[in-house]
Design goal:
The protein is an alpha+beta fold. It has twelve helices and nine strands.
């Protein structure tokens, strides 16, 4: 059996550009690749890369799949995909996928700016496969202009303001991406509501079977084939709740049914729901209802 090839590790943008047969970047910590003007070497097509910097791909017209890690991003007439440092990227040999722009920027570029401290608010860097940002024609124009502005700034002679301008432009791009992802959650409400229904059905089964303890966010996301961060961001947009809060709400609703329709004692109900200790169940129930399970049962009766 042929051993699997190890990923190619790129610690700097310069190394990556050299490895892909592209010109040396104009700035060591940030680069924009315009595929209309740049020819990429596909010598390493099929190989996996680990890159130590952020990557944002903007495909304007491409329709199809691009492999990232163990899965794929689906593009519907273009869109945006985001990768954080040290995520796997698999180089495709499909020439048609090399269109639009790619932005690379190193964490060191933004480290001493507010953006460097606030990157966690851009949750889409933690989204998994099949969660690309789809863009309308109007949104594509906005994003295209931002990529072109960054490229133009990189073409200018470096001065005392260059880094400030570049970081501001990247932050603007990320803020627009946040806005457009929020729009995507809302405009795909029917699809997302179906996802919520699937989640509720899964939780109902899990609370009945009481296997493997209380369902975790990771377990629910895995069952739905989405990333935990995407699921929480989608739920917050549509319901105002995180995935953890949603799990707890469904658990409490199940507990209320058991308290009012069975003769099981509180400990038995706690174990049935997946709690290791009845005290943990009591604490969660009281925090969510302002009543202990016993008080709730008595007040209902």
């Amino acid at each position: 059996m042929k051993p699997a090839q190890q990923p190619i590790v790129f610690k700097s943008i310069s190394e990556l550009m050299r490895g892909m047969g592209m010109p040396k970047p104009l700035h060591p910590l940030v680069a924009v690749v315009n595929y209309d003007a740049t020819r990429i070497s596909r010598e390493n097509a099929g190989r996996s890369f680990l890159i130590d910097f952020y990557k944002i791909s903007f495909k304007q017209n491409f329709r199809g799949q691009v492999k990232y890690g163990q899965g794929y991003y689906d593009f519907e007439e273009g869109g945006l995909a985001f990768l954080a440092p040290n995520q796997l990227v698999t180089m495709t040999g499909d020439e048609s996928s090399y269109e639009g722009y790619t932005l690379y920027f190193h964490a060191d570029l933004i480290r001493n700016y507010p953006l460097g401290k606030n990157m966690d608010q851009y949750g889409f860097f933690a989204y998994a496969v099949n969660e690309a940002l789809f863009l309308s024609d109007k949104e594509k124009k906005v994003i295209g202009t931002l990529f072109e502005s960054i490229a133009t700034e990189l073409d200018n002679n470096t001065d005392a303001f260059s880094q400030d301008v570049l970081v501001s432009q990247i932050e603007l791009l990320l803020n627009y991406s946040n806005r457009f992802y929020n729009r995507q959650f809302l405009t795909r409400k029917a699809v997302n509501n179906d996802l919520i229904s699937q989640m509720n059905s899964f939780l109902a089964i899990r609370f009945t079977d009481h296997i493997d303890g209380i369902p975790t966010v990771q377990e629910v996301a895995r069952h739905l084939n989405v990333s935990p961060r995407y699921l929480t961001d989608m739920l917050k947009t549509l319901t105002g709740q995180s995935t953890q809060q949603h799990i707890h709400d469904r658990l409490i609703e199940r507990a209320k049914v058991m308290l009012t329709t069975t003769r099981m004692n509180i400990a038995e109900i706690a174990y049935q729901l997946g709690f290791e200790h009845p005290q943990s169940f009591n604490k969660l129930f009281k925090r969510n209802t302002a009543l202990s399970p016993n008080k709730f049962r008595q007040s209902f009766n």
